[in-house]
Amino acid sequence: MEVEIRHLRIICAIAESGSLTRAAKTLRLSQPGLTAQLRRIETMLGGTLFERAPQGVRPTAFGELVLARSRAVLPAIDDLVFGLRAPAQNRTLRIGTVNAPLLTGLLTWLDAAHPEALVTTVTRGAATRLVELVEAAQLELAVVGDCPGYELAAGPSVVLRPVATEPVFAMMAVGHPLAAKTEVTLTELAAEDWIAPPPDDDRIREYWTTIFHDAGLAMRVRHEAEGTVLLDLVLARRGVSLCQATFRQVPGLAIRPIAGDPLWYRHLLAWHRDAPFAAAAAEVVEHARHAYDEASRRNDAYPAWLAGHTAAGGMRRE
């Protein structure tokens, strides 16, 4: 394992908070999860970064050195990734996104609505970082998401507007025994090996684990992976995983609803109150919802689920 940029941000957040408890809240992590991450970071760097104090934690001498270098590096990295603000005559609309199905449809509308602007995108695995970049005016708009009980927090300068809430589905290889069912249960899923993304700032993995725990079950995670690696492992029948209901259909992949719809995911837009989008917020949200409607047909399972759940609310338009 190598030190990543997010590790430097964790170190800085702990130092700024002066407490693991407060830093965990800021980072939207559980305190045990943050403590474990800090230990891994210290192991990678080869020294203790913080020591306990009566009022919380304080940096060690080695920690002060790492902090000084982290605080010097992070602003430069943000400038490298996002660039300096473009001059007014070369307007750039910088859009951030997590793995959002509505992005491409929204970009099509933005290109048509703002032909004078250069629309660019940047992807992040966790929504929390994108909200921070919106707050820092380094992004004009972000497509983000959260889960019940783990809602995104934002400062007063950021607007968070829900677009749609959808169920979370299970996915497995077509040849998997559960693929023969029209829907699967948490109990059936708990009996399988799992492929899951590693815990991150968005706490989605923690949300999944909590739902299983509350049902008296546990996720038996055998592989931690993301993106195409996770999908390859599912297709190779190394285990099952979860996905958004709008997940794109892939040959060899079976997407199945979960009985009782115990897990949910909410899509949101985030923008700065002073951003160009603020004046046309209602229009932007409406086009995002239209893009989501188009994306809801990316697999066969979700339209079928919607048809059977219309009376119960189905895809909840916010």
TrEMBL record:
Protein origin, superkingdom:
Bacteria
**Which SUPFAM superfamilies does this chain map to?**
Periplasmic binding protein-like II, Winged helix' DNA-binding domain
* Residues covered by the HTH lysR-type domain: 3-60
Record key words, sorted: DNA-binding, Transcription, Transcription regulation
Gene3D superfamilies of this UniProt entry? 3.40.190.290, Winged helix-like DNA-binding domain superfamily/Winged helix DNA-binding domain
The answer to whether the entry has keyword Mitochondrion is no
Family, per the entry?
Belongs to the LysR transcriptional regulatory family.
By what name is this protein known? DNA-binding transcriptional LysR family regulator
Q: Which organism is it from?
A: Nonomuraea africana
